[in-house]
Specification:
single chain; alpha/beta; Rossmann fold; ten-stranded mixed β-sheet; 11 helices; about 35% helix; globular
């Protein structure tokens, strides 16, 4: 088995330990087309055939925000016997209702782990607030929840921007019960990721993400007000503009550049305090591989990086394999990695 502190490419079925290798021009075009297919097709299929998931109960914790006062975080909890818990964080504009979240829940069920599907701040459309890529105070609140007191081994699994948040938390004196972190298709350098996302000709991705962010903001505006009206926010067409006008203003950054500089986990991966796994694909159309590779320089040796040759943004082969015992598939294999690598 490939140990932590390594970088490997994969064909989605088995791993080959080697240095990251860039495909040629034709290879990049083919991987790019497959990346779009592997991003969109699973999204559509999950809408038509939702993932069968075990029953969950509502979960919530209230956190004292320095500016707003009490802020309520919500999610869904599946409690099983034992002292292991998986906390799953969705991507930008997502929520616990996102189609990929039940995949982690089902994998945790099969592994015998309790599981929380977490809404980042405001993602439940409650109007509590909005969130950003480094709002680790909310993860602190999760760990301090009385409902988590019985768990002694806690893991974080973050999809896309949720993985960035999880990694960032793991660099900032995380709770002692946190054993390991997995980030799937996650941006690491927020500036580079925003530039790539905004210049992409596939505006369907931006439209989908921004429509969700705008709905979250509108709910917040109805409850707490805000400097921009929902009509003004709906005219935002780029992620950098969103970060400049909405995120930076709300959280006191001097602008998007200041936000990216201060929050990007790329600048502090050397400070990781827990074992972590990054899983990405060569053809990811939303978080391109070249925006991630440079950010990995200087990362701590406890970071294990795996690249799947085939796949898209959070879209992996059904028989994805990290070479670990147990069922194949992304979620099953990353849970096996968490147990194997964190004791």
């Amino acid at each position: 088995m490939l140990r932590t502190g390594t970088i490997a490419d994969s064909d989605g079925h088995g791993l080959v330990p080697r240095s990251p290798k860039e495909p040629g021009r034709l290879g990049r075009r083919w991987l790019g087309m497959m990346g779009h297919y592997s991003t969109i097709a699973p999204f559509v299929l999950r809408r038509i055939f939702p993932v069968v998931q075990p029953p969950t109960a509502p979960w919530a914790v209230t956190w004292e925000d320095r500016e707003l006062g009490p802020v309520r975080l919500t999610g869904r909890l599946r409690a099983l016997d034992g002292d292991e818990l998986l906390v799953v964080v969705h991507g930008l504009g997502g929520s616990v209702q996102s189609g990929y979240m039940p995949l982690a829940l089902a994998a945790a069920e099969r592994a015998g782990m309790s599981c929380i599907l977490l809404n980042v701040r405001g993602a439940d459309r409650s109007g509590e607030d909005i969130s950003h890529a480094g709002l680790t105070e909310d993860l602190q609140a999760v760990f301090q929840s009385p409902l988590l007191a019985a768990y002694r081994r806690i893991y974080l699994l973050g999809y896309s921007l949720g993985g960035h948040l999880a990694l960032r938390y793991a660099t900032e004196a995380p709770d002692p019960r946190l054993r390991g972190v997995v980030a799937v298709s996650s941006p690491l350098d927020l500036d580079a990721a925003a530039q790539a996302f905004d210049r992409s000709r596939w505006s369907v991705y931006r439209h989908h993400v921004l429509a969700s962010l705008q709905a979250i903001y509108e709910a917040r505006y109805r409850r707490r007000g805000g400097p921009l009206t929902p009509e003004e926010v709906r005219r935002i067409r780029r992620i950098r503009e969103w970060d400049e006008r909405v995120v930076a203003e709300r959280f006191g950054f001097r602008g998007a550049d200041d936000y990216y500089r201060r929050v990007s986990v790329s600048g502090c991966l050397g400070a990781l305090q827990r074992r972590a796994l990054y899983v990405g694909t060569h053809g990811d159309p939303m978080v391109p591989r070249d925006t991630v590779v440079g950010a990995l320089e200087g990362a701590a040796s406890c970071l294990d990086v795996r690249w799947a040759t085939w796949g898209g943004h959070m879209g992996f082969a059904k028989d994805f394999d990290l070479g670990l015992p147990g069922p194949r598939g992304l979620e099953h294999q990353v849970l096996a990695w968490l147990r194997a690598e964190t004791g």
